[in-house]
Amino acid sequence: MIAFAVLSGPLPKLGVIVVALLAGGAMLGREPVRRASMMFGALVLAPVLLLADIWHSPQLGVIHRHPLEAALGAAVLVALLVALAVLLARRPRWLGPLAVLALPFRVPILAGGSTANLLVPLYFVIAGGCLAWCVPVLWRARSGRSPRAADQGAQDGAGPHFFEKALAAYVVLYALQAPYSADFETALQNMVFFYVPFALLYRLLRDLRWNRELIIRCLGVTVVLAVLFACVGYVEYATKTLLLNPSLVARADVHQYFTVNSVFFDPDIFGRYLALVMILVVAVLLYDQRRRVQIGSVLVLAILWAGLVLTLSRSSLGALLLGLAVLAAVRWKVWPVVSAAGVVIVVGLIALAISPKTFGLNQGLNGASSGRANLVSGGARMFSQRPLYGYGSGAFVVQYRRENKLGPSSLAASHTIPITIAAEQGLIGEIVYLVLVIAAVITLFRGTRSDPVRATVAAAFLALLLHTMLYADFLEDPVTWTLMAIGAELAVQSYRARRAQEAERRRLRRATAPGARTQPAAS
Description:
Layout: H1 2-7, H2 12-28, H3 32-54, H4 61-65, H5 67-90, H6 95-102, E1 107-111, E2 114-118, H7 120-142, H8 162-176, H9 184-206, H10 212-239, H11 247-255, H12 267-287, H13 291-311, H14 314-331, H15 334-354, H16 364-368, H17 372-385, H18 396-404, H19 417-445, H20 452-470, H21 478-512
Antiparallel strand pairs: 1-2
Helix pairs in contact: 2-3, 2-8, 2-9, 3-7, 3-9, 5-7, 6-7, 6-10, 7-9, 8-9, 8-19, 9-21, 10-12, 10-13, 12-13, 12-14, 12-20, 14-15, 14-20, 17-19, 19-20, 20-21
């Protein structure tokens, strides 16, 4: 109650910084009690910050008018959350499939005067997983008992990867650049809706041991979901109706084409999901030679490909091509793939030169890119005005509309992550972002040629990275954090295996050395 009273007053900006520090500490912490304390603190403080921000907004009017019903509803949610936490405490490995199951589902919620499509089911899974891990650790610490081996988490001698430190640093930097933002409310919502819960999700998934059984189970859940979503897209296309976000139908009528979005509210996000799943299935097709697996993979790819085509998402098609090229380069050789990519680029340029109207270039670069060229140039102009520290976290839309005198319904989101960061956070944020991306790519790709699973995760991550540069949503997408968590843990497992092999080789060399003598048997 004291925290709520303080954060409802003059200190919400300090609260954003505190919750970011707690989330970063939970990501990097190696001592179980300290990590559990930070995780629990972030889990509690994030919704308090959100409630303090929207407490007097119209969308909470029902709660003000009917407090008893709201309290009963909150009690039911808490009871369900406790039940989930108990289940995950007993079956911790269920967290992976449950998180993968919840990743795509979004619920439209009015927050801060606008509708946001929030990952409510995923938040529920994250909260349950945090309670399942934190409560036993803190209870044993209070009782004076030492933590179990399963609670040690990252205490394996390897320590956090460099890119994990850069990831935590970016979360904290985003919070530090929120107080002077031209749109602090958006920065706060990005922190409590995306960065904090996804940082906790990262820590939970990073602590799981991703063996063959768990990976196959999560892959099965993902493929089944993608096929179902593609079928929903078929129904939408056949009936020319959208189950979610029907405002896109009017936009489609204006442009004389119809795009499906299934359950994702956005055809580009739907296309991104299908493209990433197709990369995973292609990896199975490349590495598993069993006939039934090959036939099943081809059928799944055909279903997903048709769904991807119906999204008309060019950024998703580009991401898919890049992911497939990476898989081919890892599976076979790099130079044939590079040569083939060069041929494709040359053919594409020739096609553009022969028929620019087919690709919309007769409308100019801005028209062909659906207005994104202006957004990129506007973001570059904003960066030139404040090159060091930018206009503050989350400020791109407000500042762009302000400078270009646009209305509240006009397109103003950058859709290009490096441009967004440059305009909002300046060189400071751009450097941290580049360090994070480069370090993550190096970590995920190192040693993947001999490990098909790691190669697949790395290819999917690189495809996702390209999509964020063409459409946006990098750390605002939980899939990014999921791929990095799985890839980081697989890298640690590979590191441990190499150390064990090296130790075994050293032992054998010492045992077979010419001067080595056999110890006499004990009498």
